[in-house]
Amino acid sequence: IDGSDRINNSDKLFGQVLRKIQRPFVREMNIISGEHQRKINSEKPFSQWLNDNIEKIYPYIGENDSLIFDVENEGSIDTSGIYPVTGVDVKIREKMNEQFMKNLVEYSASITLQMQSEIRNQLVEKFLEIIGVDQNSKYHSELKELVNKLFDEFLIENGAKCYFNPLVERFSMGLIETLILMPFASEERFDKVEKNLPEFLSLAVYYTLESNSEGAPSISDDPNERLKFFSKIFVHDEIQNSEDESRSTELLKKFFDEELKISIDDSIINDWTKKYLIKLDLTEGLPQNLIEILLQNSQTPKWSASNDKMRIEWIEKTIRSYCNSPKSLEFQKNNFGSRNDQRINLTQKIKELHNISKNVDPIKNRTDIIRILNEDILILRDITKNAIIKATGLETAFNAVITKNINLISSNLKAEENDLLDAWVSENLPKIKESEYTAIERQNLNIQVRKVIVNSIHLALKELH
């Protein structure tokens, strides 16, 4: 009687564990990866998370903010009692620029690392389930850590971590420095944009990116749209030029009331103005072509037989169609010049915007510092949400890293010869197959007891003879 049965049983268990890893787990791993990728692509959790936390990433500065008091107390005191406006503004911007960049990187890293950890944890748990480790096993936590280390070993040469700091910094640093570090209406702000114009033009494309009826990205080739992006940076267009939007809204409201004899809710008109007509720079009157289309159709039997809801839907469809038509382009050309001319003179127009900003009332006091800086922060939030997040593409980058890592783990697990995997299974087999090994140990103990009994019997028989 010997321990050969134990050895044979161990070899059998070793083979069972390897077979469960090499095919079934790889299949389960691909299923988990596919589910996460579809969820990430559809829900865009990183983009949504940054959107939802944009006010925490770029907080406004208040009258009683400790940052202002710190800067004021750090500076030199003027004997005449004159408030050092420029010095305070510059120092506050320097500190906020550093903090904003840190906030954006840390928030981006935290959500991506959290998601990566969730996926890894799901893979490890599935690995343990496949090889037969029960949740209640006393070795479960230890084996979980050991599986993590095994995966890390597989990825040690070619694997990738979801650290997207360089990616976030690449697209955001220039914008944050321009709007926060460089004071409003300063030569430094203009120089920053001029020297990095290709980068800002790329952001302008993302900022004006829309979706067509099929949901695919639709890029506007209208230079006016690019110019509005720069208007925000140089003249705070979103804040100072809200009168244009108001005038366009009034034009629509008056036309519907007087000509079409239909009363439309202000919120709907504002929505149309922001989506479509504001793009045409409508501040003096509606395009004649659009007026003719609306008037002609309002005199048809179909119009008379329609209720207000149907009429509003038709008007919205007509406005949208017009703004995307050749007639709209003709209207813009006749009123605002050739598109080619605008494209050629974009740099000049940016310079003109900078010159306009210099004519704005200068910052005179503490209140002005806070107001202008908060306007810059508002625009920074807007461009981050509508351009930086799109340009960074954290979801695409994240999925690329996860796919690469899972493919590397799969190739290691499916390899015919893998000393690392074999050694890991062999070393941890007693913990993996805890109940089986307990039975084997019990069987071995019984064998040892029987051997002692047999030996005792042999000795007793010898003494009898």
Task: Describe what you observe in this structure.
The protein has 465 residues and is mainly alpha-helical. Helices cover 77% and strands 1% of the residues. A two-stranded antiparallel ribbon has the order 1-2. Helix 12 packs across helix 13 (266-275). The radius of gyration is 35 Å and the shape is elongated. Residues 338-344 have low confidence and may be disordered.
Q: How is this structure best summarized?
A:
It is built from 23 helices and 2 strands. With 465 residues, the protein is mostly helical.
List the SSEs and their pairings.
Layout lengths: L3 H40 L1 H8 L1 H4 L8 H9 L10 H46 L9 H15 L10 H17 L5 H9 L1 H11 L2 E2 L5 E2 L4 H13 L1 H4 L1 H17 L7 H10 L12 H10 L3 H4 L3 H16 L2 H11 L2 H6 L1 H13 L7 H27 L1 H21 L4 H14 L1 H31 L1
Antiparallel strand pairs: 1-2
Helix pairs in contact: 1-5, 1-21, 1-22, 1-23, 4-5, 5-6, 5-7, 7-8, 7-20, 9-10, 9-20, 10-19, 12-13, 22-23
Describe the structure using short key phrases.
23 helices; 465 residues; elongated; 2 strands; mainly alpha
